[in-house]
Write a structure and sequence with these properties.
Elements: H1 3-6, H2 11-14, H3 19-30, H4 40-45, H5 47-64, H6 68-75, H7 81-93
Helix pairs in contact: 3-7, 5-6
Amino acid sequence: MNLLRASPPAAVAKGENSEMHIKLAKGQIEEKAYLTPMDPDFCTSFPKAAEQTVILAMIHVYQKKGMTDMVQRLSSGLTGPVFEEYKNRLTESQK
């Protein structure tokens, strides 16, 4: 099991904009942790984080299939400083 996935998001203790949460979430995105199966307890304890994980996985699939309209539509739902870099890279890769 990926250690990044096993630990709960830092957002629980410090808020979604904390530096630690942003670092952990960016690390999860870089390592494509969103492609690993989610623990059911994670889904029930952290529904917003689980929803974002599913969105990231769907974006990945749509990107692989060349479905840029769907990539743009889904990525617009990702908000906050954690996803700004990720969204910029998505935009760059679609040019």
